[in-house]
């Protein structure tokens, strides 16, 4: 890889992690499609690097909030969701590996991921725009929380996005959380799904090829982005986070359309 690409990867991981920490979407939902668009690494390598970056950012954000005493994570629902997400992280990684093994042309896997992400992002944007008119719920059943977390974990790990917009919509709809509370709970869920996804990759020895320097740069970008995003999130209100989130959905959809065209 050329030297300037390392700078681009660092900038993408930092910028995406800033937005991810503010909105609670993990950052992978931007990192994965953006880096796919450059076409300099395999789909598997970018998925792995994106997951590691999201893991570092979410770990910093969750631990820092807990130590600072300003965590908004509802442990009664957040923990069962995180347990489900952890199981889903393993299942999603297995699904991705199965799909990768099934196709000889790895670009086809990237196209499938891009199509899935486009549909999820479009649905998320529609819901977010109309969420004030949609009746929400207060799910408290532990089994139901685990099942919901399982689905979130599968989506997160399979798409290599950390969690993304679907987490927020689920937390809005099933648990009636406000924007900032949903953002923190989303990062908590993402943390668990990415940990198990990483462990599964290491245990099954399916770690793709990549530069160690690139991994270090992206993880550093994730942590620094988490620090900056957390600081910004504390200074702005929920309505600003909402507008940023909707604008972000539009950007992600455009990148997905480009990637579908590129991979097909």
From TrEMBL:
<keyword id="KW-0472">Membrane</keyword>
<dbReference type="Pfam" id="PF01925">
    <property type="entry name" value="TauE"/>
</dbReference>
<dbReference type="GO" id="GO:0005886">
    <property type="term" value="C:plasma membrane"/>
</dbReference>
<comment type="similarity">
    <text>Belongs to the 4-toluene sulfonate uptake permease (TSUP) (TC 2.A.102) family.</text>
</comment>
<feature type="transmembrane region" description="Helical">
    <location>
        <begin position="81"/>
        <end position="99"/>
    </location>
</feature>
<dbReference type="InterPro" id="IPR002781">
    <property type="entry name" value="TM_pro_TauE-like"/>
</dbReference>
<keyword id="KW-0812">Transmembrane</keyword>
<protein>
    <recommendedName>
        <fullName>Probable membrane transporter protein</fullName>
    </recommendedName>
</protein>
<keyword id="KW-1133">Transmembrane helix</keyword>
<feature type="transmembrane region" description="Helical">
    <location>
        <begin position="7"/>
        <end position="31"/>
    </location>
</feature>
<feature type="transmembrane region" description="Helical">
    <location>
        <begin position="111"/>
        <end position="129"/>
    </location>
</feature>
<feature type="transmembrane region" description="Helical">
    <location>
        <begin position="210"/>
        <end position="232"/>
    </location>
</feature>
<feature type="transmembrane region" description="Helical">
    <location>
        <begin position="186"/>
        <end position="203"/>
    </location>
</feature>
<dbReference type="InterPro" id="IPR051598">
    <property type="entry name" value="TSUP/Inactive_protease-like"/>
</dbReference>
<keyword id="KW-1003">Cell membrane</keyword>
<feature type="transmembrane region" description="Helical">
    <location>
        <begin position="141"/>
        <end position="174"/>
    </location>
</feature>
<feature type="transmembrane region" description="Helical">
    <location>
        <begin position="37"/>
        <end position="60"/>
    </location>
</feature>
<feature type="transmembrane region" description="Helical">
    <location>
        <begin position="244"/>
        <end position="261"/>
    </location>
</feature>
């Amino acid at each position: 890889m050329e030297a300037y690409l390392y700078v681009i990867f660092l900038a993408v991981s930092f910028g995406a992690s800033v937005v991810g920490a503010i909105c609670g979407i993990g950052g992978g939902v931007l990192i994965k499609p953006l880096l796919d668009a450059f076409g300099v690494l395999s789909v598997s390598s970018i998925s792995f690097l994106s997951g590691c970056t999201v893991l570092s950012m979410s770990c910093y954000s969750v631990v820092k909030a807990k130590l600072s005493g300003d965590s908004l994570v509802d442990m009664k629902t957040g923990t069962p969701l995180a347990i489900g997400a952890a199981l889903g992280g393993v299942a999603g990684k297995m699904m991705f590996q199965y799909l990768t093994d099934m196709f000889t042309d790895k670009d086809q896997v990237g196209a499938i991921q891009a199509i899935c992400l486009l549909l999820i992002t479009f649905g998320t944007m529609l819901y977010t725009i109309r969420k004030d008119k949609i009746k929400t719920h207060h799910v408290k059943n532990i089994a139901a929380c685990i099942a919901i977390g399982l689905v979130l974990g599968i989506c997160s790990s399979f798409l290599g996005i950390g969690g993304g917009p679907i987490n927020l919509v689920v937390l809005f709809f099933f648990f009636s959380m406000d924007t900032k509370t949903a953002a923190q709970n989303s990062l908590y869920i993402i943390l668990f799904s990415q940990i198990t996804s990483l462990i599964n990759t290491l245990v099954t020895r399916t770690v793709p090829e990549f530069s160690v320097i690139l991994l270090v740069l992206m993880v550093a970008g994730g942590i620094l982005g988490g620090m900056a995003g957390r600081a910004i999130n504390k200074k702005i209100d929920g309505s600003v986070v909402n507008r940023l989130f909707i604008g972000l959905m539009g950007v992600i959809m455009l990148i997905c359309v480009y990637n579908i065209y590129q991979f097909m």
